[in-house]
Amino acid sequence: MLSEDSQHRIWAEDTISDCLDRHEYAPIIFVGSGISRRYLGAPSWRELLSELATICPEIEYPIEYYEEEYTNPQIATQFINAFRDWAWEDHGQFEHFPRELYDRDGSPDKYLKYKVAEFFRKLSPDSPDDLPDDFQEEIKALRQISPHAVVTTNYDQLLENIYPGFETMVGQDIYKKDRKKVGDLFKIHGCVTQEDSLILTKSDYDDFEKQKKYISAKLLTYFSEHPVLILGHSASDDNIQRLLSELDRMIPTDETDLIPNIFLLNYEDGAEKLEGDPNLSRDELIDVGDERRVRVNAVHAHSFKWVYDAFGQGEASTKFKLSRYESSLTKYTT
Fold first, then answer.
1. Looking at residues 190-213, what average pLDDT do you find?
2. What does 40-60 look like in DSSP terms, one character per residue?
3. How do 167-170 and 149-152 pair as beta strands?
4. Helix axes of 72-90 and 45-55: crossing angle, nearest 10 degrees
5. Which of 168, 240, 262, 274 lies 20 to 30 Å from 32 when distance is taken between CA atoms?
């Protein structure tokens, strides 16, 4: 962990505090796969596809074969028929696929998505008590932020256990909600509880692109009016680049201008090296396409607890914590 007198930590804590003081609403947390990887040991995109290629007996070649020609969503598309063939070979035995799956409405990709959902269900904790011991202090600090809303591209149910009182909205349901309501968990790429909702194949991503203007409108409001903490995403992540591109179009900025309410948390391996680096960048210049770039705050950390603690200190977050506490009292006394 960066020491309390680290220049980068002092700058980050002061900047986060100033941002929270300037905004009426509690923070938005935008969570990517890096957080599930950190707390659950979840796979990367490539590792997931490699696992799928390994478990399916109808897939002849390793992942490297497909990578010569296809992107990740295209590789998932190539797997559809192999998983369908495997499922029908299993029909009558129901050793690998449940009987009801065959009668369920849906496209041929339902067998592939079933296995993906099954994989992430096994990774997901069953209750908050099952969260990893090594990160209990960090997760407690993350919970204490009490965000206005959490948005994630992850399929698993880690966040449902970190924020058990939040209402989960999956996929396109995000634009049906009142944006002023607090305590929502938006799973924009689907959830293991709804296998058909998973954004996985090339067709899924194409459909998501057609519909994303509704989700983007909601997210752009969040990104323009709230402090925003981006976790588990890198600056090269397509989801971040697309969203910041649209934000830049809505509120045009020069790349020398900083978007002051957005903080990208970067994991740095090696606490000692991090402590000894006097040149840690305080901003991240992100390429958003069409020869445009936007600049956001960059926070570097090995342990995330102090960053979460800083985001949990704002007045809006404190008010939200009190309102949740009062709601709980009402629930249990009436």
1. 90
2. H-PPPHHHHHHHHHHH-TT--
3. unpaired
4. 30
5. 274
Polymer length of the chain: 334
Check if the beta carbon of residue 128 is closer than 8 Å to that of residue 165. Answer: no
- Where helices occur in 177-334 by DSSP H, the ranges are 202-225, 238-250, 271-275, 305-311, 315-333
For the chain, what is the mean pLDDT?
86
- Strands (DSSP E) contained in 64-148 are none
Sheet holding 283-289, edge to edge: 167-170, 184-187, 149-152, 28-31, 228-231, 258-267, 292-301, 283-289
Question: Would you say 222 and 28 are in contact if contact means Cβ atoms under 8 Å apart?
Answer: yes
Cα(230)–Cα(311) distance, integer angstroms: 12
Q: How many of the other CB atoms lie within 10 Å of CB of 50?
A: 18
Q: Which residues contact 95 (CB under 8 A, 6 or more apart)?
A: none
The alpha carbon of residue 75 and the mean position of all alpha carbons in its chain are separated, in whole angstroms, by: 22
What is the spatial distance between Cα 20 and Cα 16, in angstroms, rounded to a whole number?
Answer: 6
| This prediction's pTM | 0.88
CA distance 3 to 306: 10
In the chain, the amino acid numbered 92 is: G
What tokens were used for 149? Answer: 């809303």
pLDDT tens digit sequence for 42-87: 999 999 999 999 999 999 999 999 999 999 999 999 999 999 999 9
pLDDT above 90 covers a percentage of the chain that reads 60
Cβ atoms < 10 Å from Cβ of 21? 12
